[in-house]
Amino acid sequence: MSDIRLSSILSDGMVIQRGDKTKIYGKAKENIKIEIEFLGENYETYSDDEGNWSVLLGHLDAGGPYNMKISGNDELIIKNILIGDVWVCSGQSNMELPIERVLELYEDEVLEYSNDNIRQFFASKNYNFDGPQENLESGFWKALNEKTALDFSAVGYFFAKELYERYKVPIGLIATAVGGTPIESWISEESLKNLNRFDELILNCKNKEYVRDKQKADEKRINEWYKNLELKDVGLINKWYIEDLDDSSWEEFVIPGMFRDTVLDKVNGAVWFRKEVFIPKHLIEFSSKLYLGSIVDADQVYINGELVGRTEYRYPPRNYLLRKNLFKEGKNIITIRVISNTSIGGFIKNKPYKIVFDNEEIELSGGWKYKIGFKTNRFYDRTYFEYMPTGFYNSIIYPLRNYSISGVIWYQGESNTGYPDDYEKLFEILVKEWRENWSLGDFPFLYVQLANYSEPSEVGKHYGWARLREAQRRGLKINNTGMAVSVDIGEKNELHPFNKKEVGRRLSLIAINKLYNEDIVFSGPIYKEIKKDKNKIKIYFDNNKSELLSIKGNLNNFDICGEDDIYYKASAKIIDNYVEVWSRKVENPKNVRYAWEDAPEDINFYNKDGLPASPFTTESFF
Hints:
alpha+beta, Immunoglobulin-like, Rossmann fold, Jelly Rolls, 4 domains, 11-stranded mixed beta sheet, 11 helices, 19% helix, SASA, SIAE
């Protein structure tokens, strides 16, 4: 084993940052000479009393591949190095979401594209509450090709592809996003000290005995819940998935539909659904795909008694590939075992429920037979310690501080919508701290404003997503940041909207302006200020000199209020470089909101370059 030890990111296939600030660093024996040979240059340094060493490379121009030799008491060689622009891709699941999950939209494009000059580093996802650690525990680089592409961050993939095709400069993506993480997971303990709501959580997480006991108790409870379900579900015991089961006494349920406000309201346990499907002879020999939308919370699917697919949690789309000759001519039986554990079970509406053959489809929406297999108590989920404050800052972000980068792309916020009011402050803390860690100045920090989404569990209006978007909009006051608006390309019923290509493109436009200094339109209209004019309000925008535009009719989604703070739907009209807003119900207007819903619909306010306006409020309640 070599005496020279490097972070896992300093490894074969890496992309290092071009320019003047790239370091190579590591550990060795104390006080020994370290030599580096790279691109015909020789660098020397000595390890310190603790074995730490680092070398600042000379000016690096984009290119590669190259090899690097590092020598101490022994030597190692890092192979296949590219020099280009490196971006940290961080946040939660919408940044983490791999191409595989959206492949159906982009299959031809992805599977026909290979580019060794785009590479992604897959960082380990172990959290740490003991404090900032020096190096990443593990990780590896992958070059982009038709096989590895499925694992790449979808947002990162399209972002990198746009930039490479424009500049032909190698792109390195450092994938650090972890699904479900709130912003505080990515901030240090020191920076969170002034926000009292995290103190107890941080203290508990540092207590290894507390964490161990909690995890053991959760595991025992969860295992007992599922064991009880499997033992007592009469549907499993009596094989309700078999083809010739007599289900004539079962009741009917319309799919898609949630259990709420039906006889299944708040049912937890196993509910079985069956449907007869008639398949013509000419389709039997074709393979097919079964689409069952999204199911809350888990499912097992059978066709004619054969298990054809299962999903263990609610978010992935249920798209099950079916083999040839699975169906028979005439009557076939599809059976779905739904496991509901959060009291909000059901089938998400406005999703596809069908069987797709080569050129034909069979619709599955409508009446299904159902019967409860086992009814139990609500499942109380485990404590997700990976979501706790400081965990991933310590284990991922701090250890990356010596690896030079161009900037950050960030897609996060969904997990903070339940507590949005301090997000603006937390985001400001995060950007400041990350920039201080890297010591590269105010590098571009580009982020995605949350898409439109409505939780199926929520009744009434909560505005958590709207308030979070407003906090994100206000983050633009931080120097050298940029926000990609996505409120027009989300899916009301999908936490992970599929159109990641446009998200990546919009982020790339900001990068083209912020990093590459091109004078382009990179943003839609961003609220700037209001001026009152009798019974109307004029709204002015920072919109990068691109003409304001209403598509598909009059402007939608504007609300206005008077001194009583009661909002009414407003009329809105574009006049030159501002929008005029009014309502006959408000004589003395005070504030205006735009797209102030968790899942606003019919977005039609853009600029002439096709970029949407950001939602906003003129209130100052934060």
